[in-house]
Amino acid sequence: MGSQSNFQMKEVPGEFGYVLQDVPHFSDYISDLQTYPNPLRSNPAYSVVKQYFVDMDDSVPEKIVVHKDTPRGVHFRRAGPRQQVYFESDDVLACIVTCGGLCPGLNTVIREIVHSLDYMYGVSKVLGIDGGYRGFYSKNTINLTPKLCNDIHKRGGTIIGSSRGGHDTTKIVDSIQDRGINQACVYIIGGDGTLRGANVIYEEIRKRGLKVAVAGIPKTIDNDIPVIDRSFGFDTAVEEAQRAINAAHVEADSAENGIGMVKLMGRYSGFIAMHATLASRDVDCCLIPESPFYLEGKGGLFEYIEKKLKENGHMVIVVAEGAGQELLPTKNEEDASGNKLLQDVGLWIAQRIKDHFAKQTKMPITLKYIDPTYMIRAIPSNASDNVYCTLLAQSAVHGAMAGYTGFTSGLVNGRHTYIPFNRIIEKQNKVVITDRMWARLLSSTNQPSFLGPKCPSLMNAGQLGTYDKVTGLLGCLSLKP
Ligand SMILES: Nc1ncnc2c1ncn2[C@@H]1O[C@H](COP(=O)(O)OP(=O)(O)OP(=O)(O)O)[C@@H](O)[C@H]1O
Ligand SMILES: O=P(O)(O)OC[C@H]1O[C@](O)(CO)[C@@H](O)[C@@H]1O
Ligand SMILES: [Mg+2]
Predict the structure, then answer these.
(1) Which is more confidently placed, 321 or 330?
(2) What is the pLDDT of residue 180?
């Protein structure tokens, strides 16, 4: 499945190095479009709010830490309602699909799209596509009404179902066309794979010249989507992870040389593990995919565990599911979407630790391994994620009604924006171990950096300035602002 984009990004330059990375609009490929006054103009709740409508020229900078001489840089369109809309309420058919793994907040986003369409724009025809992309052409749809969706934010999962694999662009766009509608808003909620899929749907719709807006809402519990401040459900996941870490700590603290190990999600990005560790303060070692480590010898994990047990009598380790995969025997299996299936690194390390302490040392240990991964992502979103989901959904609805397409809504530096698909699918967001946040974690846990002769890859790649071979610590990180 390719992810190359056929349409160039719309870049609008301005003064002093200002660049607007704009989102596509119907007017880019359809002529003679009719516009209508936004129905919110006559809605008493909104018409009294000063500056409720977003100025067409408002934009949000991607980087807010700047030097006095640096150019103004990349900006994104500010999200929110526009004075004019490109649909008449009665003509619009909207549909919502959720794809990929579960994430706290999916139902909140669905609820808020349905409610916003109805209450703000008078759009009452909203279909839920059953079970991910393949539901477009192989299953029945669900009529989503404000009444049906009223309580769903209190439930985990997604009421319309989700799946991996099964994306067929032609069939999906045919199915949108076959429903006999020429005016539609398609809301696609999902992670990096889903948004690549959304981009090709948008491109096909554009090639066919259809007045169908494709709006994405980025979803990923791993927080691996670039550009945005964080993805919805992440806050909830970090909070829920505390329960598992607490349990691991209690178990470890109550045993002789107790080790509590918790595996958290994070296929390629260790954000949940990093933030859960920073939040907890009970964690002595956090292992993430971006930071290679080794077990044996000087500066290795076993040596550190022995030191910690001698000092404190117990310790807690958090490991992200994608950490240390290069140490495990390879298994070339993929899921239906083509994502590599990972080995259980937590189980593997737990066994290696047990073997090491049984054979190499006279230290009896008690190790408890906790894998709360699916329990964490199956819960409803917390209060802060609920607010976030609500605003993401409202922004997506405003954007599509205003004729924008091929975009996701997303929080950038605390402001809601519209981001073109091209930007959001171009790479994965990862923990940068030469950034301040990872350094903060290292100083909080006091764990080794593992950047010794056994992990030379980063040294060779020149990602670090210098490395203190004596202390094993990242002495001279080139910290980014
Ligand atoms: N490059 C691509 N082009 C078209 N469709 C894609 C592409 N990559 C993935 N998809 C489709 O997107 C859907 C979801 O992809 P995937 O299973 O990778 O989850 P995701 O959106 O990345 O979410 P998660 O964060 O849970 O992994 C699947 O139906 C898959 O077929
Ligand atoms: O078992 P599933 O549904 O494929 O999901 C597992 C994957 O989904 C994620 O939660 C991302 O959504 C990853 O962290 C994890 O590897
Ligand atoms: Mg993904």
Answers:
(1) 321
(2) 66
Let me know: does 223 contact 231? Beta carbons within 8 Å: yes
Model confidence at 178: pLDDT above 80: yes
> Could you tell me if 406 and 202 are in contact, meaning their C-beta atoms sit under 8 angstroms apart?
yes
**Percentage, residues of the chain above pLDDT 70:** 92
User: What is the chain's alpha carbon radius of gyration, rounded to the nearest angstrom?
Assistant: 24
For ligand 2, whether the C-beta of 100 sits within 6 Å is: yes
Please choose from 337, 377, 429 the residue to mutate so as to test ligand 2's pocket, defined by most ligand atoms within 8 A of CB.
Answer: 377
Tokens of 18: 């200002």
47 C-alpha vs ligand 2 centroid, how far in Å? Answer: 43
Please write the tens of the pLDDT for every residue from 209-265.
999 999 999 999 999 999 999 999 999 999 999 999 999 999 999 999 999 999 999
Measured in Å, residue 305 CA sits from the centre of ligand 2 at 29
Indicate if ligand 2 lies below 6 Å from the C-beta of 222. yes
Biggest CA pair distance of the chain: 81
Contacts for 57 with CB less than 8 Å, ≥ 6 apart = none
pLDDT over 80 at 480, yes or no: no
Distance, in Å, from the CA atom of 104 to the CA atom of 121, rounded to the nearest integer, reads 27
**Cβ(40)–Cβ(81) below 8 Å:** yes
Contact 98, 161 (CB under 8 A): yes
- Asked about 222 being catalytic, the answer comes back as yes
Specify the amino acid at residue 260: G
Give the amino acid at 421. F
Identify the active-site residue in 118, 222, 224, 284: 222
